[in-house]
Each structure stands twice: as C-alpha cells, then as structure tokens.
C-alpha cells in the first residue's frame, strides 16, 4: 500500500509476508510515476529514525537522505512529534509525445 500527499510519499507499507519480494520497490516506482504525471519535480518522504530496513529500500531506489526533522502528526489521542530522516528524490518526468502533428 502506498499513499501520496502533494509532493510527499506519505505512506508505504508492505506486509511481512511480502517483504523481500520486490513489492516495496514496485510501489515506490509507481509513486514516482504518479509524481511525474502530476508535475512534481522533487518528491520527499519521512522515515522514522532507526528504521534501517526502510532506509535501505529508499536508498536502493535512488532516494537520498538529506537530514532530520520533526514530523508533526495528528493522532486520535492528539498531536505527536516524531523525529524522522527526510529523503528526497528528483523526479524525472516523461514527455508525452504527440501521436500526430497537425
């Protein structure tokens, strides 16, 4: 499962049974395609500090860790601040080629 929010890859989840199968890379590639279609130039995501498994996948897919920040989350129990690594990736759009020229 993946969810986008503007220029952010907001959620990415792969079940334990599917881990190691390439699903995460496919979801990330699909997200990048959606960003390109939407005209996003640089996409970003937040990764909980210490989540090295997720960090390895992002880096393998070409995302670059650029620093740390506090991500402000709204939960059913109120606001929660989470220290995260910020990853970014330049999104390369694909130009749409016309089928014919007038």
Overview of this structure, please?
The protein has 102 residues and is α+β, with helices and mostly antiparallel strands. Helices cover 25% and strands 40% of the residues. It contains two helices and five strands. The chain has helices spanning 23-38, 52-60, and strands spanning 2-5, 8-12, 42-48, 64-75, 78-90. Strands 3-5-4 form a three-stranded antiparallel beta sheet. The longest helix has 16 residues, at 23-38. The radius of gyration is 16 Å and the shape is globular. The model is unreliable at 95-102 (pLDDT under 50).
Please render the helix and strand layout as text.
Blueprint: E1 2-5, E2 8-12, H1 23-38, E3 42-48, H2 52-60, E4 64-75, E5 78-90
Antiparallel strand pairs: 1-2, 3-5, 4-5
Major sheet details? 3 strands, antiparallel
Strand content: 35-45%
Shape: globular
The strand order across the widest sheet is 3-5-4
Secondary-structure element string: EEHEHEE
Structural category: alpha+beta
Uncertain runs are: 95-102
Overall residue-averaged pLDDT value:
90
Q: How helix-rich are the residues, as a percent range?
A: 10-25%
Intertermini distance? 42 Å
SS field, number of helical segments: 2
> How many strand segments?
5
Radius of gyration, whole Å: 16 Å
């Amino acid at each position: 499962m993946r969810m986008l929010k503007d220029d952010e890859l907001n959620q990415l989840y792969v079940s334990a049974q599917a881990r190691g199968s390439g699903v995460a890379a496919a979801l990330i590639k699909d997200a990048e395609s959606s960003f390109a279609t939407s005209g996003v130039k640089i996409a970003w995501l937040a990764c909980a500090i210490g989540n090295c498994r997720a960090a390895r996948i992002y880096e393998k897919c070409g995302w670059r860790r650029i620093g740390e920040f506090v991500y402000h989350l709204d939960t059913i129990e109120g606001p929660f601040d989470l220290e995260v690594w910020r990853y970014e990736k330049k999104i390369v759009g694909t130009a749409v080629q016309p089928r014919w020229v007038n």
